[in-house]
Amino acid sequence: MANPVTAGSFELIKSIMKLSKQHYGKKTVVFSLLLLIALSGVFLQFKSTPLEYGPVTGKVEAPKEIVAILERSCFNCHSNENDLHWYEKIVPVSWLVNKDIKRAREIMNFSEWDKISRAEHIGKMWAVLNMVKADKMPLANYRILHPGSKVAESEIQTIKKYVLEITENQTAKPGNHGINYHETAGKIAASKNGVIYTDEFKKWKAISSSTLYENSMRVIYGNDIAVKAIEEENFHPWPDGAVVVKAVWEQIRNQYGEVRPGKFINAQFMVKDAARYKDTEGWGFAKFSTPELIPTGKTALFAAQSCIGCHRQLAGETGFLFSVPLKVNPKN
């Protein structure tokens, strides 16, 4: 049903325009409307809330060529050091810009790099690499107004080289690199958002596998609900109760040239509960690292501030889940 106030307002405007045409002519009416729009625009500026600029508590520690790329292509949204054009500060454009920047800072803030762990540094740099490689960042509409922000292929390779180096330095520790599938057997861990680690996934069906530049080996398992959803191609949305686990090991090559899993790195859980995890598209995320199953995230908000950003951009067509089997993945 139409809003009576809105309907009455339209009728009033129509009546005023009709009277104006009768008494003052078309040109005067057009001028009056333009003047009214201009005055409304000026009035709206007083309703504008300026973008908040927080302090720089910790800068990114990386080679100068990496920092230069991030400053040019990422800092305008993902930091507290935003250099906005004049038109981006004018209502209503400023409303959209401020909203995007606030969301971007929640996911990754290069001005608060000291607030996250070394492992999270690496994880976020992997996110940067994946997003620029997929041409998802900077956003296409942002690049139109900021053409210099596009990351060149040579710069992507520079980021890739850096990410591989810091990943290798983090994981290159002495010890036994033989496979030990039962390193985590019987252990219990819980993420801050309530996702519980379980060994049961080792009994589930393997639905896919993958690897990354750092030469890890990844096997993806699904519980019965997830497997059924895949078989029926019913993942828009995925049903509640679906659980998918990606187990990650170092990739090693034995004396015969065979590639096998080495040291356990982490287990990444995605649990579908639409009511509980509304802020992350209905998925509860968790990552349990090392045989001690150390959960990622200092608060329950970690997934909304990191995980879901990539999943929204890169896996929207498969219900926000990577590594869906090829036969049902429209991207392949």
The biggest sheet, with number of strands, parallel, antiparallel or mixed sense and barrel status, is: 6 strands, antiparallel
How many beta-strand runs?
Answer: 6
- CATH homologous superfamily classification of the largest domain: Cytochrome P460
Largest sheet strand order = 1-2-3-4-5-6
Approximate shape: globular
Unreliable segments (pLDDT under 50, ≥5 consecutive)?
A: 1-10, 172-181
What CATH architecture label of the largest domain applies? 3-Layer(bba) Sandwich
Class per helix and strand makeup: alpha+beta
Radius of gyration in whole Å, from Cα?
26 Å
What's the domain count? 3
H/E order of the elements? HHHHHHHEEHEEEEH
Our count of helices gives 9
Instruction: Estimate the mean pLDDT confidence.
Output: 79
Q: What is the CA–CA distance across the termini?
A: 45 Å
Query: Helical content, roughly?
Result: 25-40%
